């Protein structure tokens, strides 16, 4: 069987840039992610406690390996201000080999 690493793109939202920046730095400082893209000024519309809510949020794309999911989840639950933070994991099936090698170097330190 091939010794294949499994990469993931994790998605989460934050209430503002300060929370997003703090989460991104924590993940990078702990080598849990190789890169976190912070996309400001998104509008989220969702149902919460029986009401339709529309909020300005900041979106994070977190590039990592699947083995770090549990640790990232714990960081998110500890640092995130939302009662139920979003955390969705999407598999990265393939990618530029040099990019994935760089990702491996960063999260393996």
Automatic annotation (TrEMBL):
Coiled-coil region(s): none
Q: Name one GO biological process term.
A: response to metal ion
UniProt GO molecular function: copper ion binding
| Family membership noted in the UniProt record | Belongs to the CutA family.
PANTHER family given for it? DIVALENT CATION TOLERANCE CUTA-RELATED, FI09726P
Instruction: Return the protein name.
Output: CutA1 divalent ion tolerance protein
Source organism of this protein record: Candidatus Thiomargarita nelsonii
């Amino acid at each position: 069987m091939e010794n294949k690493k499994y990469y993931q793109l994790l998605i989460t939202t934050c209430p503002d840039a300060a929370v997003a920046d703090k989460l991104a730095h924590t993940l990078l400082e702990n080598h849990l992610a190789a890169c976190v893209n912070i996309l400001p000024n998104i509008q989220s519309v969702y149902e919460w406690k029986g009401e339709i809510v529309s909020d300005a949020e900041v979106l994070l794309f977190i590039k990592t390996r699947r083995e770090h999911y549990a640790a990232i989840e714990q960081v998110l639950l500890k640092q995130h201000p939302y009662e139920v933070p979003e955390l969705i994991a999407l598999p990265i099936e393939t990618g530029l080999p040099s990019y994935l090698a760089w990702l491996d170097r960063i999260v393996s330190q």
